[in-house]
Amino acid sequence: MTTIATQTESTPGAVDSEQRNPVFDELGFPKDPNNLYTQTVGSMLHAADMVDLQHRVKIILAQPKNEIMVHFPVRLDDGHHHLFKGYRVQHNNALGPFKGGLRFHPDVHLDDVKALALLMTMKCSLARLPLGGGKGGIKVDPHKLSPDEMERVTRRFTSAIMNDIGPDYDIPAPDVGTSAQHMAWIADTYQMSNSKSAYDGMRVVTGKPVEVGGSLGREKATGQGVADVMAEILPQIKIPIEGLRFSVLGFGNVGSWLARILQDMGATLIAVMDHSGALRCDTGIDAHALSEYSYEHYGIAGFEKSKAATDSGRGGKGADAISKEDFYSTPVDAFVPAALEQMIGPQEAEMLQCRVVAEGANAPCTPAADRVLQRRGIEVLPAILCNAGGVTVSYFEWVQNKACQIWDEETVDRELNKVMCMSARRTLLARQRYECDMRTAAYLAALEHIGKVYKTRGIFP
Ligand code: NAD
Question: Do 64-212 and 221-386 have matching folds?
Fold first, then answer.
């Protein structure tokens, strides 16, 4: 078993414009320190310098291979047409076909999609999956559209990017604001319009409903992967999962599954916050009851007054509604951000009363927050390690679709656990070898692999 080195004084993995990498100027990056793409590339380059990655690989990885932007009209229920903006960023395919989710959210911007695509490349490389990195999305508030409008938007977007995706080229998946249903519409649209084989629609997208070729275990996979990594690493820093007290920011797919799985492993959910409010119960909130409530009510607000809270409050007491500040400063062993990017700034990092932050969301901590957490001795398990469970089971789904196989859930969970534990061990080894923080270590382990691939393959011509 690998032991974790004590917290070092090295520069935290995330860096900002104060430590601007020369590659930024060479490629003409904007000077905005709050730009998510600049922050993400900064963290990656910080590790790339430590592992002595070839300059040509650094500049390749600092920019996506393709940035596709489309505008497409969709008829709304009231008869008028609205013009939507959609993106597909294909960051890198040195390891295999581009792979990454589609986000439907009003705040989707090109630079954010670029950052998320780069993180996918790093995630797949750290997990040693034969896949590259991509990401996409539509600037839309899904909650403002009817189901029929949503279907038309999804199908028309699929049609707009039809020639840029493919079962062996770029395979989308769900992310924030999209679900298995959206993936089924994508599969069907692709099959009807562009397929050469009866299987193409199924193989061009993952995260589908099980009845149209989805994998068992995919819906919970990201939360399960976070739990697998926590179970592998936390006991090594003397934080057992049995009896662990934790809080979760974001109670959607990742947050709610993680909470249910950790609870089933003997941990206790103490506090939770989503877009609708925050709750705390020191004797424990029942994650299963809260998930059911949240699904029904689109958010956790009001749960404290519901019968479920009174019945399920472990110790007989329901949860209390609390403020944002109280949520962040609730004492727990582990805090899991599982909402959106950049939600933990330096202020939130100062408020946290925990020993570990396990990143379920992508890029939830800003570089400034990272420095606060490091100064305060709070261990951060980075997103490219923690939340790779989704893409890993998406990979299993793609393998099953290609081989016309159906795996049982036990097999999926077992294979996922192997991948997550191996990624955790790779990260711990890199941390020991380079005496760095965990974020840098995860990037180092990812970059070593992709660096070797570029060295061996060379660069065409
Ligand atoms: P989701 O849409 O199911 O859930 C998002 C959650 O964030 C919701 O509970 C929402 O209420 C909450 N939220 C949004 N704005 C908030 C705010 N201002 N304050 C508090 N809470 C807020 O999305 P998801 O699929 O669970 O994804 C969450 C994160 O995990 C994203 O960063 C996503 O990229 C990442 N991720 C998801 C997957 C996956 O398989 N779904 C895989 C890897 C990474």
Answer: yes
